[in-house]
Amino acid sequence: MRQKGNNRNTGNGITEGAIWKQLLYFFFPILLGTFFQQLYNTIDMVIVGRFVGKEALACVGGSAGQIINLVVGFFTGLSAGAGVIISQFYGAKDAGGLNDGIHTAYALSIAGSIVFTILGILISPVMLGWMNTSEELMEGSAVYLRIYFAGILFVFVYNIGSGILRALGDSKRPLYYLILCSLVNIVLDLVMVLGLKMGVAGVALATVMAQGVSAVLVTRALMKSQDIYRLELRKIRFHMHTMRRQMYLGLPGGFQSVMYSLSNIIIQSAVNVYGTNATAAWAAIGKVDAIFWMISGAFGVSITTFVGQNYGAGKMDRVEKGVKICLGMDQAASILVSALLLVFRYPLLGIFTSDLEVIRIGAHFMEMLVPCYVIFSFIEIFSSALRGTGDVIIPMILTLFGVCLLRIVWIFLAVPVWPSLDTIVFNYPLTWGVTAVLFILYYRKKIHRIAVSRK
Known about the structure:
By secondary structure, the protein is mostly helical. It is 83% helix and 0% strand. Helix 11 (290-312) runs antiparallel to helix 12 (316-343) and helix 12 packs antiparallel against helix 15. The longest helix is centred in the N-terminal third of the chain and has 36 residues, at 95-130. The model is unreliable at 1-12 (pLDDT under 50).
């Protein structure tokens, strides 16, 4: 029999009060946290791009970056299932289920890191070869990947730990830990790259060590909790019933993320054919437009937790209102950020490199992509809201078809007919538009069905 919560459960207001205030109260710490996470990744690229060269920039942000996104994205998607379960248990004040969920999630992060460390170190050069990585970038990219995979335990533990805190409604402490992590990373970057002249290897070591600091801090926070949950290291293990539910909700997200990343890897491979300038420009774009992705992603995490807790508490009217409000916020932010990115595209790209040709190519990419970002808000908010209710299979299928499959088809069918960088880049606005329409239609039908069934 599961124990329900008691007076120690202080609550966080997500199931009460003004919806827009609760969303923003949760959103801003996530946004700032994501900003600092992007900051230390960006600092890596700024330092190697400015002080080592455009080849080092391409090593850190090109093929190696896409492979890292593939692995970390899979685990983040997988662990999202744990976040949904945990937020629902917390909303329902189910202390037993909540603690089983936390310990199972940690066991998953440890087991997953062992598997990916071994695979990553062994087959990094093979994966880089599959992506048409040029010979001049191969060695540096392989070094970066192997060091990163050697410390991926810290990445997984931090991601699962911060995800648990956010699912519980605590978005502030992950922010504080990321700020400290960013500062540690910047200092280590300067020491290892500028001081010790370690180049790409120094950047990788700095990243892994900084992640280690954040992993320790987030784990300590969960161990010191006075709420109805507490992490105890000796209790970390797989609770099979909870694990099955987490996997059911998490595997579709993980698989979806893998397909996203694979489609991006195929696109990266197509870009690599056009040389180091195009690869470096594409890498720089990935950091410049991170400003948009971190804002939209923060809204996505916010609405997943909001929906999860209110769904667990049986407040469907609040769920529907929250989704509408969050969508409006995300769209307004998307329009504003897109305008700023377009206006300042040249100086933003200039942060990463002084090579004028790289900047020119990157600015042209932005002119094609940035005006279409607002379309993605429908995908982000509706898929995140559906995940909060436990609906993951159909959203995964919609995403796989609308984004991943269409991207791959476009690269293999359209690019050979119209071979150019413009043709490669155009697949993003095309697939966003198709997928947004699919999610609008499905969400309206699904949310109405849930509301009716719960009356």
